[in-house]
């Protein structure tokens, strides 16, 4: 990606769990990472706000808690990164176009599911089911609300792992794709919700445009060589 800060790079996954996966580039299973956008608690909370995972009130609660207890902030960041890599190890093998590095992957799929399950169990223990008192006359379904993230210290990783498990359970596999690394893409995962299932790039404005420019240059060089040979 061309962006240089977490405030600039695109949110393109179509789901919070995939947006989390896409906070490193390039995304190649078992491959080296050139840039990680979540290297500090400050970057994490800023990304969560921008990705729509938390609102302004949540942001204030999390930021205040982490500022007063840096050890809790570091713990939340570690949990988030573990969820990120476990989610990637689960989704990438099923994403059309995903690439595996020559030296393989670090963790098995079973281990990835186990890590997600352990984090999900902890998040569930910190969640609350709040009954609807019946005063919301505009409500069309449901009689209670599940509130995930009642503890500001772990609010962000809790919401992320719940989102990841929900996607694991309900993802339409035909929509799950990876930006094609072999053609110059970044390997980011996304849901292709286009009407004819033709989306190829994480963002046409980024990887798609660069790939077109590169191919145009290759054609021009090939044409020039052909003319010289004649």
Describe this entry's structure for a reader:
- There is one protein chain.
- With 230 residues, this protein is mainly alpha-helical.
- The chain contains seven helices and six strands; from the N terminus they run H-E-E-H-H-H-H-E-E-H-E-E-H.
- Helix 2 runs antiparallel to helix 3, helix 4 (70-91) packs across helix 5 (109-125) and helix 5 (109-125) crosses helix 6.
- It is globular and about 70 Å long.
Brief overview:
The protein is mostly helical.
Principal-axes geometry comes out as globular
Low-confidence stretches: 1-7
Element pattern in H and E: HEEHHHHEEHEEH
How would you characterize the largest beta sheet?
2 strands, antiparallel
Structural class: mainly alpha
Distance between the termini: 39 Å
* pLDDT averaged over residues: 86
Q: Percent helix among the residues?
A: 40-55%
Biggest sheet: strand arrangement: 1-2
* % residues in beta strands: 5-15%
Number of E-state strands:
6
Give the number of helices.
Answer: 7
- Radius of gyration in whole Å, from Cα? 20 Å
